[in-house]
Amino acid sequence: MVVDIDGGRWDTAFRDFGFEVGIRDYAMNRHHTPLVEVSHSAAMGKPLDNRTVIAPKHDAGRLLVDAVEAIRLTANAGLDADQRGKLGQFMTPTPVAQLMAAMFDDLSGDIHLLDAGAGVGSLTAALIEEATARKRRPTAITANAYELEPLLLPHLEQTKALCKNACNKAGIPFTAKVFHGDFIEEATSMLRGDLFSERIQPRFNRAILNPPYHKINSSSKTRQLLRSVGIETSNLYAAFVALAIRLLEENGELVAITPRSFCNGPYFKPFRQLLLDTMTLKHIHIFHARNKAFKGDEVLQENVIFHVVKAKTSDRVMISSSTCASDPNIERRWVDQHAVVNPDDPDLFIHIAAQEEDGATALSARSLKCSLADLGIQVSTGRVVDFRATDFLKMNPGKSTAPLIYPGHFEHGFVAWPKMEGRKPNAITDNAATADLLVPNDTYVLVKRFSSKEERRRVVAAIYDPQRIKAARVGFENHLNYFHINGSGLARHIAKGLAVFLNSTIVDQYFRQFSGHTQVNATDLRSLRYPSIDQLKRLGSRVRHKLPTQERIDVLIEQVLFR
Predict the structure, then answer these.
(1) CB of 276 within 8 A of CB of 247?
(2) Alpha-carbon 73 to chain mean position
(3) pLDDT digits (tens, 9 = 90+) for 334-373
(4) Residue 405: CA atoms inside 13 Å, Cβ hemisphere, count?
């Protein structure tokens, strides 16, 4: 059959895979080339209800991934969007899958592939496309796909058949196993060695993952299963990657796309420890915009793709970046391992400096003289969790109340209190029941824990000045971090200098290298290097009734810290 679309000649190239096809409707592929979406009338003699595509004859080399992309779009349309969002189920678009598959160093020999949370099998298909196109091809491929969602299983079986046909055409023996079930249950059972069924435990020397993104309740069965094999994490994506790492053979390779949140913060430290102790980072890819990896699914997490090898080497790490996965203008740079993870950092933060100037920023930020401990300063999260203290909150100050400070009270680098027109309470009852929630009315530096999308900086600091607010004690709401000395305030010039430093561009740029979200934790602030006390005083001496402009702050930082 030949189809004429907009004057272009189209063949039923799908016959190469054993399908007889009929026209269904019109679609576009990733190259903006028309595709005809069709329904199967037969597949190797077996009727199927699912849909696929036929591609133009000149694009036959892309037939496999284009076909699987159509399967993905069809499957996506059949899933409940709200449920997918709650479970963090976002299937991999073709450009992302191809970018990931291309990261593997070696796809020769006998490949035993793990694709956990496989969806419709887009990642497996992309890897097969990549492997069959290389000069050093595999001698055989065994694909192991794990998927929990029953609605996706027919689509995954369809992809399995397409992959087998592609490998047959390339002369590569192919075996695929589709496991319907909870990958965490299966994997933890493998690691404990307590498989009692007749199933032979699979082996894996390659893994390609787009795991689900969802928090794990600390008392859940999933958390208990993970703890049974020594894995401690609070999110499914880290659990999937950790299990894959543990199951991977020595010298095996893993490529995954996940949120970037594992790069910093206390909750992911055990995961970073496992990753960095067991594997060597080879390649990290980031996207310039947080919504470009999964454009069709409205995913707003900042995603990162990383390639690791289960071997310890001193190889340098490639850092690459692009606007989106199909962007041909990928920026690349090589950096030393210690530029990604500072060997002196006990928290093992992963820094991603995509450009040369980012690397220079990191060197400058790390060259500062002091840690917070060196300065004798601590940083803590605000003690007042408002929804737990509703009985004590007051919209207006009054007798027997203390000021309650929210991020909304920030103004020109200082705290402006009260804000009578605001929606948040301005005060908290000051009595024995709230004594542990309050601190002495003194000079503090406050940092927002969450910055809005509209704000230019991730790190936004302000000075709490007791000369502007008369009170005995003050409460800082939980959406703030506060700098203090053993629970009391800072010297005035030091506080002003610290606020100038925290609001500088260099801190913001450096912070973005290890934090891919808008949350600023106390742990993140402790990880920074800081100016000396003398330098903080010199910065602070330039501040009067409000902080300088951003341009002036950056000039002061350059003059005082780096000249």
Answers:
(1) no
(2) 23
(3) 999 999 998 888 899 999 987 777 788 888 998 998 999 9
(4) 33
461, containing H or E segment: strand 461-464
Average pLDDT over residues 425-445: 97
In the block, tokens 């592609």 appear at 166
Quote the CA–CA distance of 269 and 524 in Å, as a whole number: 12
Cα 186–Cα 187–Cα 188 angle in degrees, nearest 5: 95
Tokens of 233: 């994490």
Query: Is 469 within the bounds of a domain?
Result: yes
Q: What are phi and psi of 333, to 5 degrees?
A: -150, 150
Using the structure block, give the residue that is written with the tokens 């004590």. Answer: 392
Q: What is the mean pLDDT of residues 498-521?
A: 90
| 547-552 LR contacts (CB < 8 Å, sep 24+) | 547/412, 547/413, 547/414, 547/463, 547/499, 547/500, 547/503, 548/500, 550/456, 550/503, 550/505
Is residue 145, in this structure, part of any structural domain at all?
no
Residue 364 CB neighbours (<10 A): 17
Query: 235-265 burial, b if ≥16 CB within 10 A, otherwise e?
Result: bbbbbbbbbbbbbbeeebbbbbbbbbbbbbb
Task: Identify the pLDDT of residue 354.
Answer: 79
CATH number for the domain that contains residue 428:
3.90.220.20
Percentage, residues of the chain above pLDDT 70: 83
Q: HSE on the CB side for 466, CA within 13 Å?
A: 18
Residue 301 binned pLDDT confidence (cut-offs 50, 70, 90): low
Q: Which residues contact 224 (CB under 8 A, 6 or more apart)?
A: none
DSSP 180: E
Q: Is 518 helix (H, G, I), strand (E, B) or coil?
A: coil
Structure-block tokens of residue 503: 């609001």
Helix (H, G, I), strand (E, B) or coil at 189: helix
DSSP bridge pairs for 462: 446
- Rounded CA separation 78/65 (Å): 20
State the total domains in the chain.
2
Can you give the pLDDT at residue 83? Answer: 55
Contacts of residue 80, defined as CB under 8 A and 6 or more positions apart, other chains included, come to none
Is 62's pLDDT higher than 70?
no
Domain end, chosen from 75, 93, 111, is at 75
Neighbouring residues of 492: CB distance < 8 A, sequence distance ≥ 6: 443, 540
Q: Which of 75, 91, 106 finishes a domain?
A: 75
Identify whether 191 is part of a domain: no
**How far apart, in whole angstroms, are the C-alpha atoms of residue 394 and residue 311?**
58
394: how many CB neighbours lie within 10 A of its CB? 15
Rounded CA-CA distance 528/372 in Å is 8
Strands of 444-448's sheet in order across = 378-381, 480-484, 444-448, 461-464, 414-415, 410-411
Could you tell me the residue range of the domain that residue 410 belongs to?
A: 372-561
CB 457 within 8 A of CB 410: no
Evaluate whether residue 111 is within a structural domain.
Answer: no
Side-chain half-sphere exposure of 440, counting CA atoms within 13 A: 9
pLDDT digits (tens, 9 = 90+) for 474-490: 999 999 999 999 999 99
